[in-house]
């Protein structure tokens, strides 16, 4: 099921100083598994920033709001990683760009649901705008194809 990516007991990546945002930021209604450092071995996979736009045909999604756009962006991210030979479990870093601070919690909740148990490093930025004015957020990721799964 999309967004419900159970982590195996051991991963090929060292995720150092894991934490959850509900403990670090108790005043915010967030539940994101993050860490301070990821050490990964394998082939790097860089995923272009994803927005609320369908991969096939490039149509913007019809649902309004940053959370709906984040859901589409995460679906895209999952599909692109799978096509590249990786998956959400192997995300090491995410960068989240949001145009309105008020949308931060909604977007982070969506990302947190999809990346539960992954513990990537994460940077969030509030920006003045994205490539199109209707885009409220963008999610960029770096993942790895672990050496143990790398066929090349």
Description:
- The structure is a single chain.
- The protein is an alpha+beta fold.
- 22% of the residues lie in helices and 28% in strands.
- It has three helices and eight strands, in the order ββαβββαβαββ.
- α2 (66-84) runs parallel beside α3 (104-114).
Task: For this entry, give a set of tags.
22% helix, 4-stranded mixed beta sheet, 152 residues, globular, alpha+beta, 60s Ribosomal Protein L30, Chain: A
Provide a quick synopsis of the model.
The chain is an alpha+beta fold. The chain contains 3 helices and 8 strands.
Q: Profile the largest sheet.
A: 4 strands, mixed
CATH class: Alpha Beta
β-strand percent reads 25-35%
- Taken from the alpha-carbon principal axes, the silhouette is globular
The structural class is alpha+beta
* CATH H-level superfamily: RutC-like
Distance from first to last alpha carbon: 28 Å
* Count of DSSP-assigned helices: 3
List the helices and strands and how they pair.
Layout: E1 14-16, E2 19-20, H1 21-24, E3 33-34, E4 37-39, E5 42-50, H2 66-84, E6 91-98, H3 104-114, E7 121-126, E8 137-146
Helix pairs in contact: 2-3
């Amino acid at each position: 099921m999309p967004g419900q990516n159970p982590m195996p007991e051991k991963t090929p990546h060292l995720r150092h100083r894991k934490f959850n945002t509900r403990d670090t930021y108790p005043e915010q209604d967030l539940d994101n598994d993050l860490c301070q450092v990821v050490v990964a071995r394998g082939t790097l996979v860089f995923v272009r920033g994803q927005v609320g736009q369908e991969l096939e045909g490039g149509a913007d999604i019809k649902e309004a709001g940053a959370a709906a756009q984040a859901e589409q962006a995460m679906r895209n991210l999952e599909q692109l990683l799978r096509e590249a030979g990786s998956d959400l479990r192997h995300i090491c870093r995410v960068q989240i760009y949001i145009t309105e601070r008020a949308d931060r919690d909604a977007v982070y909740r969506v990302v947190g649901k999809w990346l539960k148990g992954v513990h990537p490093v994460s940077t969030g930025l509030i920006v003045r705008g994205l490539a199109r004015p209707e885009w409220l957020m963008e999610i960029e990721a770096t993942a790895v194809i672990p050496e143990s799964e790398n066929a090349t």
